[in-house]
Design a protein that fits this description.
single chain; alpha+beta
Length: 191
């Protein structure tokens, strides 16, 4: 006798989530960044403008790679990001929503008091009815547009840093956070 469609779909989804959770390394076991990975990010940050200090770019790159690994342990990340989000929202995990990763990474980078780098925030999917919103940190030269910067996203890989040029990030259509917030305020005011 065949199983009802809903039950089949539920079982399939449960199995997929179980297998995905089993494939996620413990936060303590996340791979450490190599010196060449850190150097590549430092080079990308240094290339943001002629006045970027190479030592600041190197420090920012090292922190952007290392600090999220510490956060993964603090957040008790043991699942893919979406599953971890569900656990945070249910109160089963302390932190680890994308905006919390971005808040904490931005705060840590800001402690450095960079003089030749600027930290900005971006949000993706704010106008999508299907995809969930996603927040991140963007590093730029002072005064530059967010679109000229580099995305520093520790959430999407559960503590392993994703980075790339904002305009080349095919996974997320980034918008400046202040524009997203202004749009939301305008929609609320129009009600």
């Amino acid at each position: 006798m065949p199983l009802p469609r809903r039950l089949t779909a539920f079982l399939f989804l449960s199995l997929a989530l179980f297998l995905a959770a089993c494939a996620t390394p413990r936060p303590e076991d996340l791979p450490r960044p190599t010196q060449s990975e850190i150097a590549a990010l430092a080079d990308e940050i240094h290339a943001l403008g002629p006045n970027i200090d190479a030592a600041e770019a190197a420090r920012a790159a090292a922190i952007a790679y290392e600090y999220p690994l510490r956060l993964a342990v603090e957040y008790q990340v043991e699942d893919p990001p979406i599953i971890h989000n569900i656990k945070v929202n249910q109160g089963l995990k302390p932190r680890g929503l994308c905006y919390q990763w971005a808040d904490d990474l931005q705060a840590r980078l800001a402690q450095e008091g960079f003089e030749t780098l600027e930290l900005q925030r971006a949000i993706a999917n704010s106008q999508s009815a299907i995809r969930i919103e996603h927040s991140t940190v963007v590093i730029t030269a002072p005064g530059d547009s967010m679109y000229d910067g580099v995305v520093l996203d520790p959430w999407r890989n559960g503590g392993r840093l994703y980075w790339g040029k904002v305009t080349e990030d095919d996974a997320y259509p980034w918008l400046p956070r202040q524009e997203v917030f202004a749009s939301k305020r305008a929609r609320l005011a129009a009600r």
